[in-house]
Amino acid sequence: MTDHSDLYDVSDGAVVLRVHVSPGAGRTAVTGRHGGAVKVRVAAPPVDGRANAALVEFLAAEFALKPADVTLVSGANSRAKRFRLGGLDPDGAEAAVERLLATAGSGAHRSTGRR
Question: Which one of 74, 83, 98, 105 is most buried, counting C-beta atoms within 10 A?
């Protein structure tokens, strides 16, 4: 297993994931890394918080969390964002991030808009 701890912090018993966002993409998907962040293309445009809302839904689905457990901590108007993943066990964060990145770019991670 590769160490991905540079992509997240553990604070107050929760995982805070760093995300680099490319809004307005053809589909929502993890595409790999961007420096010290997970790179995510988002189909929603960066208008009226739609890309942020889509990211919350996407991250909740990818980490098997409720959308209410995913909170935008910083970067509301930036490509560089931080999301608190409240329901993710900090001890399992490394494995969860590894799973997220394992199929980056393969099309396995995509949002269909359905649950």
Answer: 83
